[in-house]
Amino acid sequence: QVQLLESGGGLVQPGGSLRLSCTFSGSIGSIHIMGWYHQPPGRQRNLVATITTVGVNSTGGIPNSVEGRFTISRDTAKNTMYLQMNSLKAEDTGVYYCNIKGPRGLDAWGQGTLVTVSS
User: Fold this and answer.
1) Number of neighbouring beta carbons within 10 Å of residue 10
2) Which terminus of the chain faces fewer neighbouring Cβ atoms within 10 Å, N or C?
């Protein structure tokens, strides 16, 4: 069973930065998609960034809405995925979830970490 645990959320002023971490345990195989999702207060959860891994190759994907501000990365040795968020805006406020999808129905979620961007 794959389990994920996010950390790194908190209160930050507009223009500030945060780095979220997602540490996972369990076997995720060599083909999978790791992603970060953002759920603003009272709104639906939206995809923020992904890393698609096939074997030893990984490709990152960042939507245009956060391109240039957010960066996704992973440390394979630490079983950890990161989301570096810079130039934060009020609309970035919300709960951030990490997710791993893969073959055989793998679709694991973390419990979320709250980010509040406010002065």
Assistant:
1) 12
2) N
